[in-house]
Amino acid sequence: MDWTEKYRPAHLADIVGNGTAVHQMLDWARGWKRGRKPLILYGKPGIGKTSAAYALANDMQWEVMELNASDQRTKAVIERVAGAGTTSGSLSGAARRLVVLDEADNLQGTADKGGARAILDIIRDARQPIILIANDLYGLAADLRSSCDPVQFKALPARSLAPHLKFICSAEKVHCNDQVLKEIAENSAGDMRAAVTMLYAASIGKESISGSDIRTARKDGRASIFQLIPAVLGRTTDDDLIRMAYEIDETPDVIEQWIEANLVAIRTREDAALAYRYLSRADEYIGYTYRQQYYTLWRYATVTMLLGTNIASGGHGIHERISSPRRWQKMASSRRQKGIRAALLGKLGGFTHMPQKTVRDGYLNLLSILAEKDPLIFARVLDLDADQLALFINDRVKAAVITKQVAAEKREDEKKEKIKVAKKPAAADRKKPSPEILPTEVAAKITDPVLPDEQVSPPPAQQEKTSKGGGRQSTLF
Predict the structure, then answer these.
(1) 33 vs 72: which has the higher pLDDT
(2) How many angstroms separate the CA atoms of 209 and 217, rounded?
(3) Domain boundaries, given as residue ranges, for the chain
(4) Could you give the CA distance from residue 382 to residue 428 in angstroms, rounded to a whole number?
(5) CATH code for the domain defined by 158-215
(6) Residues 95-150 pLDDT 10s
């Protein structure tokens, strides 16, 4: 059996590291009630986010329903699976049902079309606790982030990983000295799953593990861009920088963009100018490569940008969040704006019963003018979110205030409707006559049956009226 599954923590007390995050989760679970925000567990892969969610459910004796990236996560699927899980109780008799949505930051593309919006709708109506799991917190839509409470899981230090690896070796009766375990912990880069996998791969068919076994079982033999950038700006040897660059599955032009985006970490202007000089020279080599299709020049570009930037940085390292290339941020912003615009045109087209193209070409400016005069009505009738209304009236602050007001009105209306529905049965019970409290004479007339041969005489006034009409004789004599 794979050791990552065999030694997966069953309780929160078994989680290695991230004590603050574990306490946040436990406090949230103990105080959970309907209407409380879901959690977003975020951090790099392999550091225990999913394991912590399952351990929490086990400690709280909750049933778990998981929806991960291997499932088709369209709006319909999410509403059918996760939506049902958040509104219905557990079939196994558990106190609650925990809905876990793994890799929530990968809700994109045609397969997940409408998935993020469906999750927001589910969160609003949820009667069961929900936990979202993501590698990148900022890979989630802003409105989805604001609807949840973030819990950060950090990479595990080697000093925390090594004792756990030693415990596994003891349990499996495999001899491994402390230095080798330390090397495994350092090579895993804070990834518990990778560390256990490396230990398992090195131990197959052996009773004792040596340093040479570890070197053949390194974590995929690869580095990531998030390891390369700190290395370039820190104290790293030239050979290690070149090796890491070749292990990354990125071309030199992409690596150059990542380095350029993080040059703000360099302390002085003179050092930053020197780094830019090296990057510009590397960019020339990249340009020659694409123009002449002579890819040998990529080597010169790689060496120039890595070693030159490393010299310019002075080995001070990077002490803030690694930034993605600005070009990518602009492209992501552009895609997001296109999505907001398409959603807005869809609502306008449905409301006016016209094609989106017709609305866009002929009526969008006119509707924008009207919306600026009374944005509250437009936000209320079209059910616009803050981004859509801001695109309409070109005022983000005003749009945020108005959409909050509309949301508050909706909550108030829902509360009044619930109170109204709750009062209806009580009012009906008050109006319904009860036989026990009726007067004796009335109760007798209602309950005593009339026999077929009995004659029921009309009231005296009616008898008198009938006799005066001459149609029938009075039965009083």
Answers:
(1) 33
(2) 11
(3) 3-152, 158-215, 225-326, 336-425
(4) 37
(5) 1.10.8.60
(6) 688 888 887 776 544 334 455 666 777 777 777 888 888 888 877 777 788 888 88
Q: Which residues of 208-231 are buried (b: 16+ CB within 10 A; e: fewer)?
A: ebeeebbeebbbeeebbbebbbeb
Ramachandran category for residue 114: left, alpha or beta (phi over 0 → left; psi -120 to 50 → alpha): left
Instruction: Give the Cα separation of 286 and 299 in Å (integer).
Output: 10
Asked if 35 contacts 82 with a C-beta cutoff of 8 angstroms, the reply is no
- Look at the block and give the residue holding tokens 């699927």: 77
The secondary element (H helix, E strand) that includes residue 344 is: helix 326-352
- State the chain's mean pLDDT as an integer: 77
CA angle 167, 173, 174 (to 5 degrees): 85
Which residue type is seen at 394?
A: N
CATH topology of domain 3-152: Rossmann fold (3.40.50)
Q: What pLDDT, on a 0 to 100 scale, did the predictor assign at position 336?
A: 72
Highest mean pLDDT among 109-113, 311-315, 370-374: 311-315
* Residue 469 predicted with pLDDT over 50: no
**CB neighbour list of residue 216: distance below 8 Å, 6 or more residues apart:** 202
